[in-house]
Design goal:
Layout: H1 3-27, E1 28-32, E2 47-51, E3 61-65, E4 73-80, E5 86-89, E6 92-95, E7 98-100, E8 121-124, E9 130-133, E10 136-137, E11 153-157, H2 167-170, E12 173-174, E13 180-187, E14 193-194
């Protein structure tokens, strides 16, 4: 093999590695779902693709480093973006005073009612007791001292509300800390496809 041809092949190979590295770190990356907090939308051990650029939009699913568990990541749905006033009344989401239907929860909410709501907030009273709030807004949540989502933050919830550890318990999430916006399931094959918001 000629020296020029060898050099050309090496440059091509290094260039392809650089492109793959850039795509993996700046454009899209695969991740695996861990846990049940996003059921029924995402299942434990599913493999998904996330976009690593762009501002998160309301109802998009995002990943971010777990603020209460170093080295781990959470995957949740953005419910409130900067400027949004968020509240729940009679198990219904209200954004800026208007009721918003959460279509991704329609099926799972059938076994719940206003006395046993799908979305509630366990407000801590002390280390071992809490007050169950079935109607609540941002200002009711411990550690969130505002009525609207501030600039640079988002309010996130898991789709499996009865078990999810989310902004009700870990607070608002910094937009700059969001690792990616989840768009696509690629494994298992029977779940292959785009994720609707």
């Amino acid at each position: 093999m000629k020296k020029n041809e060898l050099l050309s092949n090496i440059i091509w190979f290094v260039g392809m590695l650089a492109i793959l590295f850039a795509v993996r770190h700046f454009i899209v990356s695969p991740i695996q779902v861990s846990g049940d907090s996003m059921l029924p939308t995402l299942e434990n051990k599913e493999r998904i693709m996330q976009l690593k650029f762009g501002e998160p939009e309301r109802f998009e699913i995002v990943t971010f480093p777990a603020p209460d568990q170093p080295g781990k990541s959470y995957i949740k749905r953005v419910i409130g973006v900067p400027g949004d006033e968020i509240s729940f009344k009679n198990d219904q989401l209200y954004v800026n005073g208007e009721m918003v239907e959460e279509k991704y929860l329609t099926e799972v909410k059938k076994d719940y009612d206003t006395t046993n709501p799908y979305t509630s907030y366990k407000k801590p009273i002390d280390a071992s007791t809490y007050e169950l709030k079935t109607d609540f807004s941002l200002k009711d949540i411990e550690g969130i001292d505002t009525t609207v989502v501030p600039e640079g933050k988002v309010f996130v919830l898991g789709d499996n509300r009865p078990i999810s550890k989310d902004s009700r318990y870990i607070g608002l999430i910094d937009i700059k800390d969001i690792s990616g916006r989840v768009k696509f399931i690629f494994w298992p094959l029977d779940r292959f496809g785009l994720i609707e918001n």
